[in-house]
Hints:
CATH class of the largest domain: Alpha Beta
CATH topology of the largest domain: Rossmann fold
Number of strands: 15
Number of domains: 2
Shape: globular
Largest sheet: 9 strands, mixed
Amino acid sequence: xxxxxxxxxxxxxxxxxxxxxxxxxxxxxxxxxxxxxxxxxxxxxxxxxxxxxxxxxxxxxxxxxxxxxxxxxxxxxxxxxxxxxxxxxxxxxxxxxxxxxxxxxxxxxxxxxxxxxxxxxxxxxxxxxxxxxxxxxxxxxxxxxxxxxxxxxxxxxxxxxxxxxxxxxxxxxxxxxxxxxxxxxxxxxxxxxxxxxxxxxxxxxxxxxxxxxxxxxxxxxxxxxxxxxxxxxxxxxxxxxxxxxxxxxxxxxxxxxxxxxxxxxxxxxxxxxxxxxxxxxxxxxxxxxxxxxxxxxxxxxxxxxxxxxxxxxxxxxxxxxxxxxxxxxxxxxxxxxxxxxxxxxxxxxxxxxxxxxxxxxxxxxxxxxxxxxxxxxxxxxxxxxxxxxxxxxxxxxxx
Length: 399
């Protein structure tokens, strides 16, 4: 299914088009959103889209006078070739000024060369594959990289004295990054990796892979799955096979325990430790403001997570470009702003873009799943401040 929706300023505020009433001199900015509305990333894609939409709706009044928005949303179906095709259409046919979104790293990697050719900026609001900004100088990221979350998790696990590890990751770019990063952090801390396994991305049956891990008898298992229903399926299979009861400590990135999936997991995650950039339970004023706006818009039953916050912050960055340029900018002018963009009041804490890499700098939180007032939450138990993408520090560009 291809979602082809055009949202203009009035569609976001009053649900009706007022473009005809706008003065002819109005400066229109076209934002092309590439997202996964179908495929195995559809569930987290929906949350990311909600975050982008909510920021736009609640901050439309902040735009300069005379500036209007046309927001075009396209479905990449979690497929790189589809993503490349629709991005090409947005650039050449629809003449967008900026691209935004992208759930899957393979999709983002397919689109990135197009941005370099057309000199169209792209703000990644998820797509954690570490190498994507190096494909094109017109890519900036407001989400995270898997090295940012997985390397600290490996170091933390080794410090607990869990010296025999195993890794189990989804078999695509983010999984490979997570596997490599955790392994480096864990082994540098004195741990040993007994084995690793990669699982299919589409409708995987986790049981045979987890049984293999159980038979190896590690002291810790590091997992990466792409959030959404797969995270719940993973936790339920871990419980069914009794991995934790057999003495295996489960650790992961925030993808295993996304906040919106916790109500579906029962008590299985209690005590599981993850590393991530955001938790609904965080006691920050900006987070409370964000959650209040979210609940007002989407209702009590809808729970945001790091996907939603990535979308929120990505749209915030685009709005700042528009505000600083009064809606008239080239790709190079937009990138000059994005490369030094910062926000002290993100729901996840202070964030900024590293001008040298165009990747996000942010706090990484070590989080423990706990029951509080009868509800499961990810409690931040440790903060690692101002984390740059470690892969780029370890692998500087070749001269």
